[in-house]
Amino acid sequence: MPVKADIGYGGVLMVGATVAAATVTVTVAGVRSITPPTWVRDMIDATTMDSAGGLREFIPGLAESGDFGFELLWKPQGTADILLETLKAEQEPRLWRVSFPQIGTPAPFISFRGTLAEKGETVPMDDLLMCTVSLKVTGAVTRGTVT
Predict the structure, then answer these.
(1) Which residues pair with 15 in a beta bridge?
(2) Whole-angstrom Cα distance, residue 51 to residue 130?
(3) Within 13 Å, how many C-alpha atoms sit on residue 121's CB side?
């Protein structure tokens, strides 16, 4: 039986034009890879002196939507670089959306608010100029479909 798997080719990363934007309208060009947010829950150590069997006990704490990352072709002073430099100066999160590739419709997506947390460039002697970006996601990640 053939394997039913997909590749990432055709995925689209978009961001709101401003901090106040309620929709995403700016497509981030040159994206090579996307790492969706990783959901994480804190576990609180609730161990006491009389915990059974001398084993630690935990209770669930607060959850967070984690970090979101992407890597793109870097062109100094290019459109994406200018956008990222703008994001560095902002103190509030923007709306982001990742549309996943899919043959047919509707295409699945995730959306979330995130703030630029890290941006780093790589300038190898014999390969592509690259930029690696990390956002801190705030609040919930919403899943849906693009029709």
Answers:
(1) 26, 96
(2) 51
(3) 12
